[in-house]
């Protein structure tokens, strides 16, 4: 059973901390950009409404920001830790 409620307008990421695969639940299509703590872009991908996966196994251990730019013109920022 999917724990994400599509009526929620905020994207959701898990697990946090993450080792290899970050799951992204999004209420709509959009783009996600991952930046390190120095604001360097380390990854970017198109996402779709519902469940998406990002391979983060190549990232170094540490803290990162994931920026969501959704097609409904909403932006969100979440922090996650790569183990």
Compute the separation of the termini in Å.
Answer: 27 Å
Alpha-beta content class: mainly beta
Strand order of the largest sheet: 4-3-6-7
Average predicted local confidence, pLDDT: 91
What is the makeup of the main sheet? 4 strands, antiparallel
Mass-distribution shape:
globular
What's the CATH class, please?
Mainly Beta
- In CATH, the architecture is Sandwich
Could you describe the 3D structure shown?
The protein has strands at 12-14, 21-26, 30-36, 41-47, 50-55, 62-70, 75-82. With 83 residues, it is mainly beta. The chain has a single domain (12-82), classed as Immunoglobulin-like. It has a four-stranded antiparallel β-sheet, with no helix packed on it. A three-stranded antiparallel β-sheet has the order 1-2-5, with no helix packed on it. The chain is globular, with a radius of gyration of 12 Å. The N and C termini lie far apart (27 Å). Mean pLDDT is 91; it is low at 1-6.
